[in-house]
Amino acid sequence: MKKLVIVLGTVSISLSAIFARMASAPSIILVFYRMLFACVLLLSVVFVKCRDELKRLQRKDIFLCACSGLFLGMHFTLYFESLKYTSIAASVVLVNLEVFFVALFLFFMYREKIPVKGILGIGAAFLGTVLIAVTDMGSGSNVVFGDILAFGGSFCVAVYTLIGRSCRTHISTSVYTCFVYGFACLTVGIAALISGTPFSGYEPVNYGLALGMTIFCTFFGHSVYSWGLKYLNASYITTIKLLEPVFASILGLLIFREIPGAFVIIGGAVVIGGIIYYTRNAESA
Fold it and tell me: Which ranges in the chain belong to alpha helices (H)?
């Protein structure tokens, strides 16, 4: 039953691409309201159950949460924006390259070794990424731009993950995520002000889609993974997460009649296979 819950959590996260594609508001506004709704919903829990922990927080902790929120906001903005230019399949696959950025950061920053089999997995995923990019080059410059945005979103979420790795050693999930979502909201809010992007005046459905992202993708998705780590092997959860491109592509096909190109499918399969191979061998090393 618990494994099924993790699978359903992955389906929930895959809805993010669908919600973003359905929206007409700018990506930065979708991110702003998604993070705002999440932060507001968490505030009541934090203030009621975590008052003592809030008092113990140091300036360093708040600074790290701010940095984490900055990169999370950038990740969502780049990811949602990429969906305006490239296919759902290509965007979601490229964003899932996060695990390799994390591995490279840990190698260069902490000298954590990458197993030889892990390097082979990274190489396979890189080749799959190249295949997707080369295929998309024949579809126009906008598609390649979308791939670049998704790739940048992968980099940003990797930094967010690394900062979270440090913070979560002494900060509870509720407090950490509340601060992070709040700072992500603040980050994109400031960016919207600077760019002159209005916060209102969009079709009502956009605010509903942002709320849907909060409930399904954030709480029923990412939070489910955090819950599952208490009961299931991390390698199982990591592997199931890689089904997100599959679910997102199927939903894109059913809802938007979006059929990925043959080489995008092949490249995506190579990327996912490389990530699975890397994850299994890196965790068993």
Answer: 2-22, 27-49, 51-56, 59-82, 88-95, 98-110, 116-137, 141-167, 173-195, 204-212, 223-228, 234-241, 244-256, 262-284
